[in-house]
Amino acid sequence: MTNKAYYITTPIYYVNDVPHIGNAYTTIMADIVSRYHRLKGDDTYFLTGTDENAIKVAAAAADKGVAVAEYVDQLAEDFKKVWASLDIEYDDFIRTTEQRHVTVVREIFKRLLEQGDIFEGNYEGWYCVPCETFLADSELVDRKCPSCGRDVEWVEETNYYFKLSAYGDRLLAHIDANPDFLQPEFRKNEVVNFIKQGLRDVSITRDNKGWGIPVPEDESKVIYVWFDALINYISATGYLSDDERFKSIWPADLQLMGKDIFVRFHCTFWPAMLMALDLPLPRALFGHGFWTIDGEKISKSKGNAISPAALAEELSNESGATRGVCLDAVRYFLAREVPLGQDGDFSIKSFRNRFNSDLANDLGNLLNRTLSMLGKYFDGLLPDPKDFGGGLGDVISQTAISAQESCDKFEFTRALEAVWQMIGIGNKYVNDTQPWNLAKENKLDELAGALYSALEVARAAAIMISPFMPATAREIARQLGIADTFASLRWSDIATSRPFAVGTAIQGPDPIFPRLGSKRKEGTKMADRPPAPKEEKSQDQINYEYFSKLDIRIAEIMTAERIEGADKLLKLTVNLGDEQRQIVAGIAQNYDPDTLSGRKIVLLTNLEPAKIRGVVSNGMLLAATDENGGAVLLQPDADVSPGSNVK
Ligand code: MSP
Q: Could you tell me the distance, in angstroms and rounded to a whole number, from the CA of residue 640 to the centre of ligand 1?
């Protein structure tokens, strides 16, 4: 017996246009699931592809004045390129014009005709071309398609039907007996209601207008595109061609799709077809929600169809972060912002906020400051944490357990929340242990332990985010000096204690996520913008290494008094956590010394000491200058403890 693979599918896409963020969403989420299962060590099979035999595909080719066969070849290639540019790692890509598919569809048609599940008849009714759906009069809303709201066409054809009506009770029984079959739970009720209303037999052919899979022994007809398309999930995996392979893959563990094609096609028609073929049903069908852009339906005519690849490109040009990392930010946003199953709105503002807060601040900080201290205090070589016991091992293993539970239920927002909670604990741990003070006090063993422990959190985060943000995870691993082994790490390795070899040469820090400014450059469209030319480095730009030499920290003013004979200067004593200092600051114009005690300020701590008006100053307070040339204090936006790093 071969072990069965974890089999996940996306819908196959109509090739009437290249994918936008809405349909890319289905594939990105499937990619996350499939990478997660690979990370768990499961043999995984991820299928996607293109749905090419539709009437609307032929119409799109005609619009462009191209032969349909040529057109679909081109678009199938375009889809593959888009998926590659979104770092999608599928195992197979099926096209419904491929012989391996066509043969199986025709065989199935013959078999179901012979056994009476398909019968000949006449169809009189409506058809919606954009949705490729047969509709009864009673289903129309204001004479339009209930799903897309567009015009429908009247059809009168001799045809073939599939006996869907025979399967209602069996479908309901299966849904009842298999609680995880239809997800999320709230969509299950829609399906049950749809079936309980009574299922009608469905027409499964159209007149042959020169495009589609011809009905066996009746070439005047082609097979209805949904009957043809749904079969891709089994034709790609060896049904009727390689039994052993088929058994090692089918049934699918997860079939993912948007809510528009969930109830009627994937939860009713498809399982009934499988029942007719005596095949096991998929273990889970999941209907995700729809994205809008800034509150509006995604539509080609509105011109708001964001391409995720173009968005990543634009962000990379603006921020200087790599394209892979920017793409990861899009993937992260899609997985984090909205629970799978719910509708979501994509706004550039919230995307940029998440980029800055979750990625640049939380994740970036943890990594950058820990690596920079390792560089500073241990020459970038991971020290031996000796018998250090105050680490975060329990937090890491608890997070691995809860993130896994959430991922297993496709609750990605929750999984990522758990990982970010752990990152927050890691950052707080650095604030609390104050490694810079341990260094000053020459407590090297404790310092080694604290930094090692912070890096353990960064490593655990890298493994857990790798299904969501593969390029970022690899880059973190590189900076942690574990690039060579990273790809072979599994989910079960997250909680390994003491995972780094002493003496590992860490790299960087090379900040992965630069903070974005509050406004993105205007005047460019989101999609299809040509890459901006790279700007030359100006003479007065500094690199990060240079900047990282500045030790800027939060300090709390303890006392403040005037300096005799100097109307602009105040003498301050400040608290920097474990240390107190005296500084001289030119803020007397704007601040009364009696009001300053307890205020938090931003202090450059490693400026060489200077004597000003005879008073020693050990550091420089940072302030903005107002229009009168007076100093305006900077202060942290939230309560941070004295000694906290400013970057
Ligand atoms: N060809 C059929 C599927 C056949 S599967 C046997 C089809 N193709 S599609 O190209 O129109 O859509 C593919 C996927 O994109 C569907 O899962 C659909 O729900 C999803 N989305 C299209 N627009 C979307 C949003 N605005 N938001 C989220 N998903 C969206 O249907």
A: 46
